[in-house]
């Protein structure tokens, strides 16, 4: 049976401004550039998988506007299946206002639009895909109750669930922990989840282990340019980041998750799939906007750093 990666999540247009630094609260800054790119955590993760030539299906919603049409065309071009992406004629597409500073750091405000209207109808679409799903990728940019319902459905049929807990809701639903096979917070999200600062390898190790104690099976805490720490039931290990010239960190976490799913889909052990993830995340920071590399670029990158093992689908 041909399996695929199922992604249930948001689809946005990103309105990106660049500035020398991020503004303080109440401050007006004169920036440099403005451009629009395709984004949304769900769509980014789907495009990352699609461009890595992994069979991928996205379940989500776009608005009945021109953005919606453009977003669908972009997904298709990346090889992502869109038969379960609903066009909502009564709503606008999701939009993200993004400021990117010269050091590559960013701030993002998301207006959910059609993403906010995702409901049990979309959960049923996810359920339809589960018999052929190798794994289900979730984030938190769509209504929380639908994320929980999709994770429950996946657990019922034994499908591996990866959750990127972004953006962090005011209260993280505790019932989600026991439904997650692999959680992948960044350091901000890990701090928010656990209530202590996560900013280096030692605190990330503690965070990953505590997340496992809360019920997730495996936890990866992403530390950006400092690497990532992974806790599993048997082990706890560190994955170094690949040093690159960073211009923009937008969607680096999405690229990480997409490449992680791609690695796991190909049967790589978690440690090696995390090297793919680290490469996908690093490459994403080298270009403006949500930059998601194709398979040849990722393989060349790994070869150039002596990490390529010659995988074939
Ligand atoms: O993770 C980056 C993404 O967050 C952006 O593409 C934006 O749309 C928001 O969803």
Structure description:
The model has no long low-confidence stretch (mean pLDDT 95). α1 packs across α7, α5 packs across α6 and α7 runs antiparallel to α8. Helix content is 34%, strand content 24%. β12 and β13 form a beta hairpin. The protein has a domain of 173 residues: 3-Layer(aba) Sandwich (UDP-N-acetylmuramoyl-L-alanine:D-glutamate ligase), CATH 3.40.1190.20. It has a nine-stranded mixed beta sheet, with helices on both faces. The chain is globular. The protein is built from nine helices and 13 strands. It starts with a strand and ends in a 9-residue tail after the last helix. The chain has 313 residues and is of the alpha/beta class. The longest helix is centred in the C-terminal third of the chain and has 15 residues. It binds alpha-D-ribofuranose.
Per-chain topology:
Blueprint: E1 4-8, E2 12-19, E3 33-39, H1 41-51, E4 56-63, H2 66-77, E5 80-88, E6 94-101, E7 106-111, H3 120-129, E8 133-138, H4 144-156, E9 160-163, E10 182-183, H5 187-194, H6 201-213, E11 218-222, E12 228-231, E13 236-239, H7 252-265, H8 270-284, H9 295-304
Parallel strand pairs: 1-4, 1-8, 2-6, 4-5, 8-9, 9-10, 10-11
Antiparallel strand pairs: 2-3, 6-7, 11-12, 12-13
Helix pairs in contact: 1-7, 3-4, 5-6, 7-8
